[in-house]
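My current task is to audit a protein record that another person submitted. Thanks in advance; the entry in question is below:
***
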Amino acid sequence: MSNDYSKVWDLDTFFPGGSSSPDFAVFMEETERLTAELLNELRENESGNVEPAALTGWTSQLQLILSRVRESESFVSCLTAQQTRDRRATTWTERVQTVAARYRQALDLFDAQLAALSEEEWHAWLDAPDQAELKFVLNERREGTKEKLPPALEALAGELAVNGYHGWGEHYDTIVGRVGIPWEEGDRKVTLSAGQAFNKLSHPDPTIRDRMMLEWEQAWEGQADLCADTLNRLAGYRIKLYGLRGWKDTLHEPLRINRMKSSTLDAMWTAVSDSVEPLKRYMSLKAQLIGKEKLSWQDVSAALPSEQSTIPYGEAAGLIENAFADFSPNLAGLARRAFQERWIEAEDRAGKRPGGFCTDFPLEKQTRIFMTYSGTPDNVSTLAHELGHAYHGHLVHGLPPMNQEYAMNVAETASTFAEALVSDALLKRASSDQEKLVLLDDRLQSAVAFLMNIRARFLFETRFYERRASGMLQVSELNDLMVEAQKEAYGDALASWHPHFWASKMHFYITDVPFYNFPYTFGYLFSTGLAAVAEKEGEDFHRRYDALLRDTAVMGVEDLASRHLGVALDRPDFWRSAVARAVSGVDQFASLIRQ
């Protein structure tokens, strides 16, 4: 089934006129007013006794402002992604970050009010009907005050972060907007944006991949000094703030954000180490197929030759909808709505930033997906992945705003589960051995990405923070750390490495979630475990799956897995079984090659 869907998203549904939208200007003014009023009220009551009715009112106001801040953050992130040179959108970014910082100040003052209550007062208020749905989040907030600076200092840090910490993070958009890669396509000479160039790295033609890899490394080498400054400043800010809060471990914040124990992270990485040898075998087999002794960095995600080297966008939409329908009519319906109502920006054009994301508009109860679609199997996987995020957002839209704030690790569960559904469905319907081989290769590419590439990012970032505590690192040192991490994660499986990966990868520059890496592996393996349960339970599992996703913001991941799956995440057993399932396709891949 193929459909004629637009590849350009609709943002006018929210605020017509893009970065010049009068409606958005009014919306921001109202959001700023509401935030300022609540902040002033909380400051005025900072040292006084608080009536339960006031706490309830503040809780309601905070949730309203949270939804408005999320709406404005999503709109501006869409604007800056679709056109990196939109300077008016960049200006809006600072303004949105400022109101978000003031919202966080209000939240810190609110948390202090919660902490000031006696145990008796606390439970009396928390048990009232108005707070019943918010017990987990409010308890979490009250406990979190013990790990923070006094509200006034947290407020100061938040204000300074807008043009400091977050400003450095936004600098990545400026840098990536400078990247223009000269390219010849037949008789035509063009300049590719970073997003367009990145897609060439997985091109079926090895000569194009190899040529682009040289250009890609050279382009990021040209920006490496700016990237090094940016990365060093971001890490320096975090290390200093962590020290003031008394946090000795740089993983303290990302684990807390992801509602995850360090023992769970350790158990996961212990199991991941079991995947190296099977995946090395897969990469050796793939190298034979493409006529190389070893794969180069750019060969890992390259599609194998097939009867259909590119997949039209409309056909990809049909494939995804059908695959989703085999698991859940609700998931398929959400995907269809996203395509029909233009929730997706997929056009392959200059000026876009690289990568993909899904962002939520809670007031409109919609999402938007960003990517650059050029017809590769990897693009189809990305599209399914982001639609998984959209479905997760759809399931929580009816909950109180505070209960919609699920962490990145469980967010990646929904997305990678959706991606796996598409992979499984296509493999079952494959009509030839060559088609099966191509699909297995795509599946094993995902295993390499989540179990090797993400591990390399985690190793790099962990060691970078250890070194950064003693001073700033130079470009050459960052390159060395990156290659060292890649070699450890991939073993000796590759013939070449990507020294400037740290410069090119947007995830290292994201300020909202530090260590934007291990949650991907968590989500991939957790969803792999979910897929095993789905196979056993059959068509009724989709209801249990929906219930699990709705609970993702109201319990820690260990409790989530125990309640909905009956497994312990802080021991390696679950993770080892998930890893074994993730690499199980290697034997089938090998047998298809021998035929």
In short: Residues 396 and 404 are 6 Å apart (CA to CA). The mean pLDDT is 92. The domain at 18-170 is CATH 1.20.140.70 (Butyryl-CoA Dehydrogenase, subunit A; domain 3). Strands lie at 181-185, 188-192, 344-345, 357-361, 366-370.
